[in-house]
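A quick aside before the break. I want you to see a complete sequence-to-structure record at least once, exactly as it would be stored in a machine-readable document. Don't worry about memorizing anything.
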Amino acid sequence: HVQYQAGNVAAMASLFAWYGLKYQGLGGQQVDVSIFETQMASINTRMTNLLQHEYARERARRTVGVWGGYPSGYYPCQDGYISATGGGVFWPRTVAMLGMPELLDDPRFAPPLGQWSIEGQEEFETTIWLPWLLQRTKQEVVEQCQANRLLAGAINTIDEVVDNNPQMDSRGYFIEIDHPVAGKFRYPGGPLLTEERWWQINRPAPLLGQHTQEVMKEGWGSPKEDGELPRPQGKGRLPLEGIRIIGITAAFAGPYGIMLLADMGAEVILVEPLNFFPNSTRGIFPRPTKEVESQ
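That is the input. The structure line, written in tokens, reads:
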């Protein structure tokens, strides 16, 4: 995940540099991506808590219970782990999947108060939920959850994701590429699946500097022996200055994407719902105030 995300950031940074060169007259740019920094800037619970502690010296505490009810989270099963959300409004579906209709209105577990009970959560998970999971493989659990319209997914190793993934295999997602240096490996394919199969790999990743002279001769600048790119002509400008973006998104991937666009100079107008998700989706912790940053 870390390597893949860093690669995505490098790809976006390269696109921004190209856009700045072609449309903003910024000249050539050297893109330097730190794997560590891509993780520290990510908008997810762990990283924001670490940043909050670094800037404000406050230690975030986990709230007792689960705000959406239980079962919810990561659990062991017969051959690994699964992630499942079956509490709150999903409680009737969880009860149906377990084949225990008597739990539907059981005050120990049932909404609303039962789903907020620490004692109820501990009793349910230790005496009912975990024994049920440990009798089944993660694939069996996921299939039963899906059959009952519950959110669930298997926690897979990288080998399982690539080599034992019926969903991705059915979509033809992973493709094989033969690279002249790295060799033959399976790689992630197109992000979208269309009937025309418009997305396909035409060539392996280039070697370092392989196309520099070719690109320079196409009008990007005068070719030089050392392949040096033309220097930026302006100062203080960012590649996306002058572009206005309307962000209609919440949670993780969406805010992270528009945060990068804003970092590159775009004017971002974030449209937020009044009754859905907390303000933390703005990415406020990765952007501390000047006062907090100076402490």
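Two observations worth writing down. The two ends are 32 Å apart (CA to CA). The mean pLDDT is 82. We'll return to this after the break.
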